[in-house]
Design a protein that fits this description.
heterodimer; A: mainly alpha; ABC transporter involved in vitamin B12 uptake, BtuC; two-stranded antiparallel sheet; globular; B: alpha/beta; Rossmann fold; 2 domains; two-stranded parallel ribbon; 15 helices; 12% strand
């Protein structure tokens, strides 16, 4: 009886009993979800255009953030370090295309996946040699990101919203809208989508595979930098950020590996749902720390009914 | 660019060090002293200053004294990334030549603990590992001087209760910990103390993937309104917790960490806002001490150190704690050399040295470590030594001493040590228990 009450009654009593706290939980879930969605977007873009599951997306987040902070530490002002970091991410995209992807064209998917593991290991070692493994402070204020908090008192309670989290959410929305406009309205964007739909047909009409790959990896680099700034401003920049990237995996399972919409909706859903579950069910009934597995359970349940994910394409193959 | 070249060359030098020492061994004997380090991965921020300190003390002795009694100290790192499987691989790789193993993770320590009985290699785990390793009769090859996690937990409780644990009755203590063997280690002691003294104890685990995203844990803290938050954090978890505490506006003077949660670099991220945060510690930095001045002269100024000078790492609690950890190992070596009247000691002889460590006021002074570590000594029956510790407090820019020397409650801990050691031996039977130690 107590257990049933703990599952079906108590959580809702708590939610309605302290609505200000519920708002805070929902906000924190939304911020986490936005960040998950950003990481998932990086995976989706590369998979969509090249059928490569980019294992290196997590380390790209670390590498981009470390480059930004590292350049600033070496005396460059933030307004110079930021574009220079983008240049570094462009060089990285070109290098990956030339050195790793081009020689592996037409190889099985698993080979390309293994190659991205190689890229991960290289970036870990290279990043540590150049920037060291210490935790570094993100140059939040130098980038013009406000650091205070906005405080409200709804329902006689208290809600605090960090301005940097607000900036993250707004920044992510701007980035996603820009990305969608680019993919749907620009010539290059349509080329990326064409390549994702049918490689051979796209090549036959003159779309350059290598140019698109460089472009897609560069966009993934931009997303990685945005994610790195957002996460880094919360708890510093270190190689621990790479671990967070794996939180995007259930988002991809839920949203579908090929869907930009799926990455965004999946990220937000998982961010909010795991926070609600942890606070109202996980901590009182299971001792907490349910966020490490909750998203995977949700994703697996979705896969039972929709193997392609909520927004993925249903693939029918004749045998 | 100069820094990059320097870092690259130093990294190459570390990799080549064993080879260089192998060459030097033709001319001079060398003791192989492996360290299962973690300079990479999510815990690197914690590991790097500690390992830099360990390395620099050995380098200093090699440069200043030509090693110890004419024998070079062959400090060798095997990178684990704080990963238990890699740690065990490193142990297997280094056990043939090494006379000690320094596992650097409670998880790795627990894995190599049974192996050390068979391989007869002493485990040196200063301030970490399984607290019951204090029982030297049961854990004949494992040493965790100068204080165990249970010592740390007891000292924290004493400090926050003002010396009277009964004053905690009716209060709530949240225990924010890494969901890992390290983080779970003090839970039995806290639970026993909570039952005895009538306070409520609320464990709040932080998963590895949540270290930098602790909003759920701190929402729980906001909801539960604990009187104190005690943190058992490592690596990126510390910075994540401290920034969330600032964000949640949790009173910093009610937030206390174990000694691995006192990394200057983590607190520098929040600066003034972290003012009042405290951490129990068996070490304290003293950059003016003779030993630190020698490290500066022979290693840092000579360009042989890997420390981040710009960040002020030389002054950090962790860097100087690394120095002390190597000092403990070297004192064990010296004790063994003297006792067995040989310069090139083996693992079994070092074991004797580690259970006869004497860090009294006189030896601390003669080693040039004044003010850096409280006195302690080990024995065949007691592998911890129980130095006690100081409460350190972040003043906005550095840690300062905020208490006199605190001592753990032996009456509460020792019976738990005896029962947990017996439980461990029974669960791992047949487990050899010393009959030689008569203490």
């Amino acid at each position: 009886m107590n257990l049933l009450e703990g599952i079906f009654v108590k959580p809702f009593q708590d939610m309605f009993g302290a609505p200000d706290f519920l708002i805070q939980v929902l906000w924190e879930g939304l911020v986490s979800g936005t960040l998950y969605a950003l990481i998932a977007l990086g995976f989706v873009l590369i998979y969509k255009s090249s059928r490569i599951f980019n294992f290196a997306q997590g380390i790209m987040v670390v590498f981009a953030a470390l480059t930004l902070v590292g350049l600033h530490e070496r005396g460059l002002p933030a307004w110079v370090a930021l574009p220079l970091t983008l240049v570094v991410m462009l060089i990285l995209a070109v290098a990956i295309e030339r050195v790793v992807l081009r020689p592996l064209v037409n190889q099985p998917d698993i080979i390309l996946f293994m190659a991205t593991i190689g890229i991960t290991l290289f970036l870990i070692g290279f990043g540590e040699i150049v920037f060291g493994g210490e935790n570094k402070a993100m140059i939040t204020s130098q980038l013009g990101i406000p650091t205070g908090s906005l405080e409200f008192e709804p329902f006689g309670g208290f809600v605090s919203i960090e301005q940097r989290d607000l900036t993250t959410v707004v920044g992510a929305i701007v980035l996603v809208v820009a990305l969608l406009v680019f993919l749907n309205r620009s010539k290059m964007g349509r080329a990326i989508r064409a390549l994702g739909d049918d490689h051979q047909a796209a090549l036959s009409v003159g779309i350059s595979l290598s140019t698109i790959w460089v472009l897609v990896w560069f966009i993934a680099g931009i997303i990685a930098l945005a994610t790195g700034i957002a996460w880094g401003s919360r708890a510093g920049v270190s190689f621990a950020l790479e671990v967070i990237a794996y939180k995007a995996l259930p988002v991809l399972m839920l949203g579908g590996l090929e869907s930009v919409t799926g990455a965004i909706v999946g990220g937000l859903m998982i961010g909010v749902a795991e926070k609600l579950f942890e606070i109202y069910w996980g901590q009182p009934l299971l001792g907490g720390n349910t966020e490490t597995w909750f998203a995977y359970v949700v994703a697996l349940m979705v896969l039972l009914f929709r193997p392609q994910g909520l927004f993925g394409e249903k693939i029918i193959e004749r045998v | 660019m100069r820094n990059l070249i320097k870092t690259t060359l130093l990294s190459a030098a570390i990799a080549a060090a064993p080879l260089a020492l192998a060459g030097a061994a033709w001319a001079q004997d060398t003791l192989s002293l492996p360290n299962l380090s973690y300079r990479t991965g999510p815990f690197a921020a914690t590991g790097i200053p500690l390992m830099n300190g360990q390395r620099d003390y050995m380098l200093m002795l090699n440069e200043r004294d030509g090693g110890v009694n004419g024998v070079l100290l062959g400090y060798e790192e095997c990178e684990t990334g704080y990963n238990t499987e890699k740690g065990v691989e490193c142990y297997e790789k280094t056990k043939a030549t090494g006379i000690v193993t320094q596992p650097w993770s409670t998880g790795i320590t627990l894995q190599v603990l049974p192996k050390s009985n068979v391989d007869k290699i002493p485990i040196l785990a200063p301030g970490y590992g399984f607290s019951a390793m204090q029982d030297g009769k049961t854990f004949q090859w494992a040493y965790n001087p100068p204080a165990s996690y249970w010592d740390g937990a007891s000292m924290i409780l004493q400090n926050i209760s003002g010396g009277n644990l009964d004053s905690l009755k009716g209060k709530k203590i949240a225990f924010l910990h890494l969901d890992h063997p390290f983080g779970k280690e003090p839970i039995p002691l806290f639970q026993a103390m909570a039952e005895k003294h009538g306070f409520s104890f609320l464990p709040i685990p932080v998963g590895l993937s949540e270290m930098q995203n602790q909003s759920a844990q701190w929402l729980q803290i906001r909801r539960e309104k604990p009187d104190f938050v005690v943190m058992w954090g490592w690596g990126a978890m510390n910075a994540g917790a401290i920034t969330e505490a600032v964000k949640t506006k949790y009173p910093m003077n009610q937030f206390v960490g174990i000694w691995w949660s006192s990394l200057d670099g983590d607190l520098k991220l929040v600066g003034e806002e972290g003012k009042g945060y405290r951490s129990i510690s068996w070490s304290f930095p003293n950059s003016q001490s003779p030993v630190m001045q020698d490290v500066k002269k022979y290693v840092v100024d000579a360009g042989k150190s890997m420390i981040n000078k710009d960040a002020g790492e030389f002054e950090w609690v962790f860097y100087q704690r690394g120095i002390l950890i190597s000092a403990m190992l070297v004192e064990g070596i010296k004790a063994a050399q003297a006792n067995f009247n040989t310069k090139v000691i083996n693992a079994e002889q070092l074991r004797w040295g580690l259970e006869n460590l004497k860090f009294d006021d006189a030896s601390i002074k003669s080693l040039g470590l004044e003010g850096m570590i409280p006195p302690f000594s080990t024995s065949c029956a007691n592998h911890t030594g129980h130095s006690g510790g100081w409460m350190l407090e972040w003043d906005g820019s550095k840690f300062v001493k905020a208490s006199d020397l605190l001592q753990a409650d032996r009456a509460a801990i020792d019976p738990l040590v005896t029962s947990e050691a017996a439980k461990y031996a029974a669960a791992n039977a047949p487990w050899p228990v010393s009959t030689e130690c008569k203490m």
